Amino acid sequence: MFHSKEEAVLGYIAGKISSLILTTFAVSVIVFMLMQVLPGDPAAVILGINAQPETLAVLHKQLGFDMPLWQRYLVWISDFVRGDFGTSYTYSVPISELLLPRIMLTLPLAALSMLISVIIAIPVGVYAAATRGRLHDVVSMGIAQIGVAIPNFWLGLLLILLFALQLGWFPASGFSGWNNGFWVGMHSLFLPALALALPLASILARVTRSSVIETLNEDFIRTARAKGLSQKAALWRHAVPNALIPVITILGLQFSFLLAGTIIIENVFNLPGVGRLIFQAIIQRDLITVQSLITLLAVAIIVVNFAVDMIYGLVDPRLSKGVH
């Protein structure tokens, strides 16, 4: 039983940290075990179909395949925690060297997608809530429903046809690199970011609309209106800030779908990012690369959700008052 605000906050944070650690451990075990049951022999892929059994046996030992499963997991996870993700079977270089240049594309792509989705979703959702039941509300939510249903890879192809091939405003594929300038690089990422952002914006707009409508029915909004506050002022000063709390939560939960979407979108637009690296590693049976990168993405998703939980919990009035 908590007896103060500080104890309530510390207890909340401790519980979330414990959940983060346990979830991360569970994810690492699941990913490791899935990689072990996949068909195919990485050593045979590396050496080729004509490799001799003696050579395969030597490589198996070098890769650690002769160790018990639990020991292989402990060796891998201990190295992973220290930042050593292993050595790629295909390229024979540390996975971290493959990851670093690619993450400098994937992270800006994800951030730009988030930014675009928020810029679109919040105004649309708030305006739809303010005009609920009218034409704008019906049309915008109808478009949002279509946006939820359209796969992002198909949307990406449509954007390429319109803005790259027909209008010529953006490149159809590839990445110009950051060496040519920040805005040139962002120009290359805009179409794939838009393809990722529009389905997410559709979800956020619907959530924002529902949350704002629910907040507008609260007693404190009616009190503010009774004191002479205009409808517009009550909406933006009181309703919207309170309504955005669940929107932040949904935004954090959707981050996992955003990262998963980069794997497909980076292949559609031929972008040399983390998603494309994972796809290539799967094709090439580079299981240690797939194992480490998927675990790293899962950890990133867990950490983002943890941060969202912290933000949501710390602004929740019930937590701020403590539990008595």
Automatic annotation (TrEMBL):
Domain of life (superkingdom): Bacteria
Domain ABC transmembrane type-1: 103-312
Stored SUPFAM superfamilies: MetI-like (SSF161098)
Main location: membrane
Membrane topology of this protein: Multi-pass membrane protein
Subcellular localization, as worded in the UniProt entry: Cell inner membrane; Cell membrane
Annotated protein name in UniProt: ABC transporter permease
Source taxonomy: Bacteria, Pseudomonadati, Pseudomonadota, Alphaproteobacteria, Hyphomicrobiales
